[in-house]
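Entry:
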Amino acid sequence: MTLSLRAEHLRRYRDIAWLLMKYGRGDWVRKAGLEESLEPSDADPAPDGAGHTELAADLEKLGPTFIKLGQLLSTRPDILPPDYIAALSRLQDDVEPFSFAEVERIVTEELGVRISKAFAAFESKPLAAASLGQVHRATLRGGTPVAVKVQRPAIREQILNDLEAFLEIARLLDRHSDAGRLFGFEDLVDEFRRGILRELDYRQEARHLAALNQNLRRFRRIIVPAPVVDYTTRRVLTMEYIDGRKITAVSPLELVEVDGRALANELFRACLHQILIDGLFHADPHPGNVFLTGDCRIALLDLGMVARIPASMQEKLLRLVIAVAHGRGEEAAEAAVQIGEVRDGFDQSDFTHRVSDLIDQLRDAAVKDIQVGRLVLEVTRIAAKSGIRVPAQLALLGKALLSLDQVGRILDPDFDPNSAIRRYGVEMMRLRVRKSFSAGHLVAGVSEMKDFLERLPSRVNRILDRIADNNLEIRVDAIDEQGLMEGFQKVANRITLGLVLAALIVGAAMLMNVPTHFRLFGYPGLAIILFLAAAGGFALVVVILFSDVKRPPRNHRP
């Protein structure tokens, strides 16, 4: 396979090769055949290696596709060390805004009507600008204030072109490098493609807003903006406007006045509920996406990165999080094994030992030094290196908890996420039990019971008919009795043969001293005959060594 020579791909080949060279992966560059795309000044790695903070800055310079790739890599502790994971989790997505003329054009195309007809007011200066789009404040005709998110022009085409270049390089690395065969870069790019294409469809984000808005109604201090469905398309998202400030811009004195401790605990409890009960959670609740409103509530914004957790995994994740919070290393290791897929060469005792050591080291640490999200990510990294294929949801959980650790400590410097998990763990368990008795689960159970009762009479009739005809059979597939009897018989025969041979040898030895005229080879003839008969013992040894084989297993019987 050779690389494409399209102009837009050549630039990305050079960017990727430069990153790999700078961060010490020149061998990957050579195996992928990317040397020719480099300029002479790019051919050497940075002196003494480049740090994790530099990687985040470099990705930001290279544009939206690399920023989003960095965010994906921040969920892969099996590929990157913890410091890099933490740095990429804090990737900033602030870029220069695009012109208001483009905003007008895109909104008009998407809504099918001019801005002046759709909105009573529409501010030309954006509230925020990111790599995929920017947000403007506006007012609907009915007087409702809204925030309108508009996608950057041609951003979808740019990302698709970049993804093609990424995919070509990933395939080369998978074919020609050990790292590619270990990590599966083509699968990583495919996962990245699916995620970013979902993020580029604002209708998907609107559905996430509606779902989380409904799920979090029970938490009075937490709000999520509701979408305006009639004004939302693939490239335009209109949602409720929430007046507030980033929590990073709020002074400590203000946080004391609004009870930052209560807000931190409510936010952590709400996010645990999202992850472990609802199965749909904001996967990127970093400080830039968390606002403090004028009425002293926490607003969760930017739901482009949302993760879903199947019900079968929620229970296992809950056990893992509680085990980590309580410092129970063996239970955490067992939960991680149940969550992941064990591959060949996995050593469970070594994995359990390493996870236990990790958690034991932090058991006596100060509260300010414990980050439950980082612990979950570290457990994920150990699992991946030990031979467990961990699902992406586990890394996203660790990343979300890590962000919550940071947000919680901004709201309350003494916030203890471990204590919060221990407090709310019992509540989460209770809610999960209650959820199992929900209407949906009960309907499924009633349906199964109905099916059982409908089939029961015919099954009972068949059993009674067979009993009446004396044809009822019960098959017990316990042991292979025929093989067992054959084995016993073989053992008994060999013991008997061995005793007979031993008697012949002893008898022959005794007859050697008895005088007789019948002699063979100069020795008493009867004794020699008995010795020759005893030579059959060698035949028995040969049979035992070369003829005994395991009996082939029987075909399974129902």
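Residues 554-558 have pLDDT under 50 and may be disordered.
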